[in-house]
């Protein structure tokens, strides 16, 4: 699951006057160790009490679960750290850690989520999905109905010239400006860029050039994704005036598909939960609730019909949690499916980009546009996904956990899939702590300078990243590696117990969220109904709590999860319901 990048070993000797650089370092460290050991041995004969540095080091070692060294060894460690470790730490930070966010100098340790049998069925890299045809839709007479049309429907209106991209852009910018402040879901309106891209889309169509179902379709990006000439704030007051002069890979892909960027949408500060420098994003289905998850803006905006789709990200629940809370269909793809070049990094072995949409079919269309590898993201891959629109679900065996919504089980069974009770069997009990250690240490590596300069004191929610990243300072490199070894065992055990083509289960169970992200499993979050809110306002209320479930598949089998979700949504309409937003 782990490999070096590039594949040649970085520790091969580099010849310098007959000796390698690494040999010189080792020789230097050996001399330090030998001299220190001799000095300590002589001093220990005449001194029974440890000196101040050793006392402090001895006391601190308990926080690393390593309080088993005697005073002589502690003195040796203290001197070695001063002479060797600290200078090396400082030089490495100077090289790669001055700029926060992890946009440059990715780690050579590359996580590969593919299972050995995942690439049996190959398709051509350039082969696109075969999108379904829709009956000729009529243009609705009001903006509200237009706003809740699917990508497929809107695309057909544009293709047949029943509406222009300029008109669609007008509709969604008006809605963003009307409801964006209510939901606290928008950071930056990209109005000038939107009208420029809409004009380009309309002009191409006049020339007889149609780029596909995203041609002229407005959308939003989570504000950890770089777009030139616009602020990329990462949701943080520390970075709210930051402009990153690069086009993120996912933005370039959508631009080439003809899509129109109308807004940079809220990310929780530094991609943690729904609190950002401008407030806290709300749930359109119950305005008294918050959206949860750092992909708060993309989720709430899609749910409320402020954009037809949006791109968010997940490291540990930031697609699944807000999608479930706000009743949106969303896809967390297999790890590595979408290159993350130009995107703020939390954890290079956990971060994923995915779409929030009206339906699973829309998710498939967006995924088809944004998937692919890029040299700026060594973990990204050209994954041989089959066409989800042509998967025969009657040939699939689908498991369901105890937490599955049984309506989904019954519907898919009626559609011809084989449904069986299922349980993931694994013996690793530290799933949640493995994720926390991995995410927090990786995040700290990307925001080392931020913490050192004291910006954590200005962070919007003091009980979030500031606490976790201080704790991460006390994770030894040895135990970080042990966590990755335990992760490897977990992956093997999950693979061995994954005896079905897909399974249905709770989308927000924390153990499953951690497991799915560590293993790299794709999941489609599917709205399945509503229930009454716990504390309704007086009188009648349209506010609801959304009910959802998750459809999980093995890595690189996103098409199976999408096909099952599309089959379910073909005979249900939960995903088509409209939230009250600011109504009672």
UniProtKB/TrEMBL annotation:
SUPFAM superfamilies: Amidase signature (AS) enzymes. InterPro entries: Amidase, Amidase_dom, AS_sf. Residues 167-498 form the Amidase domain. GO terms for molecular function: glutaminyl-tRNA synthase (glutamine-hydrolyzing) activity. Pfam families: Amidase. This is Amidase domain-containing protein.
């Amino acid at each position: 699951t782990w490999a070096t990048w590039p594949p040649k070993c970085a520790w091969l000797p580099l010849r310098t006057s007959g000796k390698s650089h690494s040999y010189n370092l080792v020789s230097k460290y050996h001399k330090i160790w030998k001299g220190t050991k001799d000095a300590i041995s002589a001093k220990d004969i005449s001194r029974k009490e440890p000196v101040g540095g050793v006392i402090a080091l001895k006391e601190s070692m308990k926080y690393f679960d390593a309080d088993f060294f005697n005073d002589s060894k502690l003195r040796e460690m203290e001197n070695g750290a001063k002479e060797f470790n600290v200078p090396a730490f400082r030089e490495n930070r100077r090289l790669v850690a001055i700029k926060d966010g992890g946009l440059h100098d990715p780690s050579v340790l590359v996580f590969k989520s593919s299972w050995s049998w995942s690439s049996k069925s190959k398709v051509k890299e350039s082969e696109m999905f075969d999108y379904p045809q829709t009956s000729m839709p009529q243009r609705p007479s009001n903006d509200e109905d237009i706003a809740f049309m699917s990508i497929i429907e809107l695309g057909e209106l544009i293709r047949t010239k029943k509406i222009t991209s300029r008109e669609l852009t007008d509709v969604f910018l008006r809605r963003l400006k009307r409801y964006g402040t209510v939901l606290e879901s928008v950071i930056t309106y990209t109005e000038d860029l939107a009208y420029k891209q809409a004009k380009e889309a309309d002009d191409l169509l006049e020339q007889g050039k149609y780029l596909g179902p995203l041609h002229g379709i407005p959308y939003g990006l989570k504000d950890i994704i770089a777009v030139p000439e616009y602020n990329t704030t990462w949701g943080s007051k520390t970075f709210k005036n930051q402009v990153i002069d690069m086009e993120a890979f996912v933005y370039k892909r959508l631009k080439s598909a003809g899509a129109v960027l109308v807004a940079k949408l809220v990310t929780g500060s530094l991609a943690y939960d729904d609190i950002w420098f401008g407030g806290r994003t709300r749930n359109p289905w119950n305005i008294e609730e918050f959206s949860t998850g750092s992909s708060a803006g993309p989720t709430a905006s899609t749910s409320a019909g402020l954009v037809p789709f949006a791109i968010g990200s997940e490291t540990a629940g930031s697609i699944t949690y807000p999608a479930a809370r706000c009743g949106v269909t969303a896809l967390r793809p297999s790890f590595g499916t979408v290159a993350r070049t130009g995107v703020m990094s939390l954890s290079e072995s956990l971060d994923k980009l995915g779409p929030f949409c009206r339906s699973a079919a829309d998710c498939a269309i967006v995924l088809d546009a944004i998937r692919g590898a890029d040299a700026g993201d060594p973990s990204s891959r050209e994954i041989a996904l089959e066409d989800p629109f042509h998967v025969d679900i009657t040939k699939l065996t689908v498991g369901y956990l105890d937490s599955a919504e049984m309506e989904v089980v019954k519907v898919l069974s009626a559609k011809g899939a084989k449904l069986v009770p299922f349980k993931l069997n694994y013996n690793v009990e530290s799933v949640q702590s493995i994720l926390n250690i991995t995410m927090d240490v990786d995040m700290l590596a990307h925001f080392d300078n931020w913490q050192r300069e004291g910006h954590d004191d200005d962070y919007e929610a003091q009980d979030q990243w500031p606490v976790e990243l201080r704790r991460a300072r006390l994770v030894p490199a040895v135990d970080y590696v042990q966590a990755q070894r335990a992760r490897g065992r977990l992956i093997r055990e999950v693979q061995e117990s994954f005896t079905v083509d897909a399974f249905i289960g709770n989308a927000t169970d924390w153990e499953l969220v951690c497991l799915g992200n560590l293993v790299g499993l794709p999941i489609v979050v599917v709205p399945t109904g509503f229930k009454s809110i716990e504390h309704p306002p007086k009188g009648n209320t349209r506010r609801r709590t959304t009910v959802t479930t998750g459809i999980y598949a093995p890595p690189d089998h996103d098409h199976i999860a999408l096909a099952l979700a599309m089959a379910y949504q073909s005979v249900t309409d939960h995903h088509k319901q409209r939230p009250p937003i600011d109504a009672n």
